[in-house]
Write a sequence for this structure.
């Protein structure tokens, strides 16, 4: 790689990296204050088994999450398999036969297709008589006229907002856009439950969804808030009455949040959360560096290196299958785990297109660790996210670009 080009990129991104440092400081203070408020003890690392009664560490983790998100209550559990699982639990907890779910950010992640019933499945929301409506974004923002029309002519129980782009070409949604649309919805119908899919977005801004009026927010612990330490799990934060319902859907009615053994995971969840502001900052810096460098090399990227970020995901638009595959393979062969593996496009549960995925990570599927994936379909976009440290992210990206150019 041309050293002069790298120096040019480093000079261009210097101011943006300093902004990330400021963000890291703000979110670090938020996390530390929550730990101090709840007085975390070494004994909170102790494991529970079986039913998980009286798990003091588990309960303290949930208080810390509520503090950080400015929520009434939270549900943070290793019993969640993924962010998609947590979203599914929330949907089934909050919706009843005859209710209507409205997405105002277009079609959700492909993994939600069978959950909602867009693809036939006898366990879907549709199979339980729950209706689904969808409003697409316009020019990367909410369609306010259509939202008003649907809300005023239909009884909507729950609105789902997916902040991150998923496998789409639209932009991820900033906290300011979220603030504006939530205020608009509440002015039309204050009783609608607003649920935010916050995956990939935690600690990318100074505020989180509950602070701008969302009733409930959901995310994964093998993304931002796990910092590469949490081995699995997810969280739901929000109003206490809604969290109670989610707890009873995850476990069983009458027991809810009172059960669920931590199985020794408390230390990893706490340590991951403690490191999360720093790791998210490293991910943002890696995205900024990658975006600027690839744009200098003539590739189309989104977001640009100096744009306001809503999440840790970077779109690299290759416009041809071969370049997409070579770049992703370059990420894999320069990852700390499974570097000897040759990643190829293949079928993946929950997705309709073949997917190529590089995830040489310490935790399977972790996307706060540097990973890169994309569906094999035009315009052949690589979705890159994560990096536990900025310097490791730089090294891997430079070597992936070398593989692309070879």
């Amino acid at each position: 790689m041309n050293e002069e080009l790298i120096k040019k990129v480093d000079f261009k991104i210097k101011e943006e990296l300093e902004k990330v440092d400021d963000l890291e400081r703000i979110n670090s203070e938020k996390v530390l204050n929550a730990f101090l408020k709840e007085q975390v003890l070494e004994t909170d690392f102790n494991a529970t088994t079986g039913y998980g009664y009286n798990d003091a560490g588990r309960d303290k983790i949930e208080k810390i999450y509520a503090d950080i998100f400015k929520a009434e209550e939270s549900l943070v559990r290793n019993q969640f398999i993924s962010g998609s699982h947590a979203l599914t639990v929330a949907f089934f907890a909050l919706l009843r036969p005859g209710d209507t779910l409205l997405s105002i950010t277009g079609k959700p992640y492909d993994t939600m297709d069978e959950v909602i019933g867009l693809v036939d499945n006898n366990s879907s929301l549709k199979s339980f008589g729950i209706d689904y409506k969808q409003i697409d974004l316009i020019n990367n923002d909410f369609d306010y006229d259509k939202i008003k029309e649907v809300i005023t002519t239909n009884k909507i129980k729950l609105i789902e907002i997916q902040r991150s782009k998923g496998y789409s070409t639209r932009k991820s949604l900033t906290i300011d856009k979220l603030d504006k649309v939530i205020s608009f919805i509440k002015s039309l119908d204050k009783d609608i439950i607003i649920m935010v899919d916050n995956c990939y977005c935690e600690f990318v801004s100074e505020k989180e969804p509950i602070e701008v009026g969302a009733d409930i927010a959901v995310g994964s612990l093998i993304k931002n808030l796990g910092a590469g330490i949490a081995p699995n799990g997810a969280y739901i934060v929000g109003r206490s009455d809604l969290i109670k319902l989610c707890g009873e859907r995850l476990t069983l009615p009458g027991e809810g949040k009172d059960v669920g053994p931590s199985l020794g995971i408390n230390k990893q969840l706490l340590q991951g959360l403690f490191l999360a502001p720093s790791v998210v900052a490293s991910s943002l810096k890696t995205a900024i560096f990658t975006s600027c460098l690839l744009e200098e090399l003539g590739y189309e990227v989104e977001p640009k290196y100096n744009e306001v970020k809503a999440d840790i995901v970077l779109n690299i638009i290759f416009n041809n299958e071969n370049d997409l595959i070579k770049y992703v393979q370059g990420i894999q062969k320069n990852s700390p785990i499974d570097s000897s593996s040759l990643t190829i496009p293949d079928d993946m549960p929950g997705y309709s297109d073949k997917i190529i995925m590089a995830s040489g990570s310490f935790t399977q599927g972790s996307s706060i660790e540097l990973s890169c994936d994309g569906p094999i379909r035009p315009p052949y976009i690589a979705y890159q996210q994560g990096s536990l440290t900025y310097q490791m992210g730089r090294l891997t990206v430079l070597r992936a670009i070398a593989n692309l150019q070879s």
